[in-house]
Design a protein that fits this description.
Mean pLDDT: 96
Strand content: 15-25%
Shape: globular
Structural class: alpha+beta
Distance between the termini: 27 Å
CATH architecture of the largest domain: 2-Layer Sandwich
Number of domains: 4
Number of strands: 18
Number of helices: 18
CATH class of the largest domain: Alpha Beta
Radius of gyration: 23 Å
CATH topology of the largest domain: Uridine Diphospho-n-acetylenolpyruvylglucosamine Reductase, domain 3
């Protein structure tokens, strides 16, 4: 491999070919620190041309490639396996904002741009880039697209796929496809863009993208609502859709234990209610008229919900500080879970209408098989995406409990499948859920996916062992 590494150094410079174990480790270790693979080297190109040249070298030497952005994924999709025979190709040095077109409402960015930086660039141009995730300070646009990330504003703006108009991609042959068009209508054959979005780097490497921008709202109104059941949350969702219309931006469902864990591990975050309730919904509306109009709209809809006994209580944020504190509750749930100990995560989606029944039936199954375990459910109920996580009973060794992961996954995923849902809503498949995908995808679906993979990556060098 010396000849291969030497040629890589000639392409991108010796300092950007990392072979020492200490240098490789951050790129080989997945975000939750539960798995570490091993690679031959980490390659850090700084341009699309350099990416293409490296792919050509990898193809020549028959070396597989693991594309990587911010490495904040949760399904072991952006780290290598344990063989040490692949390279990690990090896109972090491709981090330029290429162009902002405020008339066309688009921003063209390198794949290695941090999501928060894209949001800030849009804001500086008096525009909104609405993709928002808990990991937005570390995740990259390329990674967001490769996993078709969702986040908190899908209800209003859609997933990463809906926010993307064009891509630049290096394919498995090392050729550059320039599809960086800011068009909202282009009916000239197959939509190649959508092949690469959500493909987790298994068909090619996204190096740049044209993303949609939106006018900044005049006002954002945030409220936390307390209610008694998932059925009440669904009723509130329907009322909110009718009352807020397109202004409804976020509808985050939160179970009581989530607030308890956040309060336990982040006690500086103020609790909005003096008493505890069974469930909560974090609402956000984006208004294009005024602060007063947004406030009146929120009061009208939530007033109806109170009068109709759909909700038990509500707090409407009076200031940006209070709104941020309400969002901190939601954004710190995952961190609070991590501080509490290991847990078994599920990133699932269901028709919103099925969520109450799914939660009731699945809880009964889980508790009957694993008495005392804690069901930590939260997520983007407005688009049907739940993070349905299982923590061990208090006092039970979490490592021992994690050994039940396969059995618990089977219970949860079988229920998801029974309700015509998906076992992956926004995190992807990676290698973690590959066997699960084989269980729930039909033979016809798998055959078509394999045909696409074989056609675009016949040498199987693009992130092998992920998805398929």
């Amino acid at each position: 491999m010396d000849d291969f590494l030497q040629q890589c150094r000639a392409v991108i410079g010796s300092q950007y070919v990392l072979i020492d174990e200490a240098d490789r480790k951050p790129y080989e270790t997945e975000w939750r620190q539960r798995y570490r693979g091993h690679c031959l080297a980490v390659l850090r190109p700084a341009s699309t041309t350099e990416v293409a040249d490296l792919v050509k070298l990898c193809r020549q030497f028959k070396i597989s490639i693991v594309p990587q952005g911010g490495n904040s994924g949760l399904v072991i999709g952006s780290v290598p396996d344990s063989s040490g025979s692949s390279v990690v190709l990090s896109l972090r040095r491709l981090n330029k904002i290429r162009a902002i077109d405020t008339d066309n409402n688009t921003i063209t960015v390198d794949a290695g741009c941090i999501l928060n930086d894209v949001q800030q660039s849009a804001d500086n141009s008096q525009r909104l880039f609405p993709l928002s995730l808990a990991s937005e300070g570390t995740c990259t646009v390329g990674g967001n697209l490769s996993s078709n990330a969702g986040g908190t504003a899908v209800l209003r703006y859609g997933n990463a796929r809906e926010l993307c108009l064009g891509l630049e991609v290096v394919n498995a042959q090392g050729e550059i496809w320039d599809g960086l068009k800011g068009l909202r209508k282009d009916n000239t054959g197959y939509d190649l863009r959508d092949l690469f979005i959500g493909a987790e780097g298994s068909l090619g490497i996204i190096t740049a993208a044209v993303m949609k921008l939106y006018p900044k709202p005049k006002a954002i109104q945030t409220a936390l609502v307390a209610l008694s059941s998932p059925e009440a949350a669904l009723e509130l969702l329907n009322l909110s859709r009718e009352g807020f219309g397109p202004a409804l931006t976020g509808f985050e469902f939160i179970s009581a234990i989530c607030l308890e864990l956040v309060h336990k591990h982040f006690s500086d975050i103020p609790l909005p209610f003096s008493e505890a309730y069974s469930y909560y919904v974090l609402l956000e509306i984006s208004d294009h008229e005024s602060e007063s109009h947004a406030r009146q709209l929120a009061e009208n809809v939530l007033g109806q919900a109170l009068e109709g006994a759909i909700i038990s209580n509500a707090v409407i944020a009076d200031s940006m500080t209070q709104a941020n504190n309400l969002w901190k509750i939601r954004e710190n749930i995952s961190m609070a879970q991590a501080a509490e100990g290991k847990n078994i995560k599920h990133d699932i989606s269901l028709p919103s209408s099925c969520i109450p029944a799914f939660m009731m039936m699945t809880a009964q199954l889980i508790v009957s098989h694993f008495p005392g375990c804690r069901l930590i459910c939260f997520g983007h109920m407005g688009d049907g995406n739940l993070h349905y996580n299982i923590s061990p009973p208090i006092g039970v060794n979490d490592q021992n409990f994690i050994s039940n992961q396969e059995a618990i996954n089977r219970l949860v995923h079988d229920q998801v499948h029974a309700y015509n849902g998906s076992i992956s809503a926004e995190h992807g498949i990676g290698s973690l859920k590959r066997k699960e995908l084989l269980r729930y995808k039909s033979a016809v679906e798998l055959q078509m996916m394999r045909a696409i993979k074989s056609a675009l990556d016949p040498d199987n060098i693009m992130n092998p062992g992920k998805i398929l």
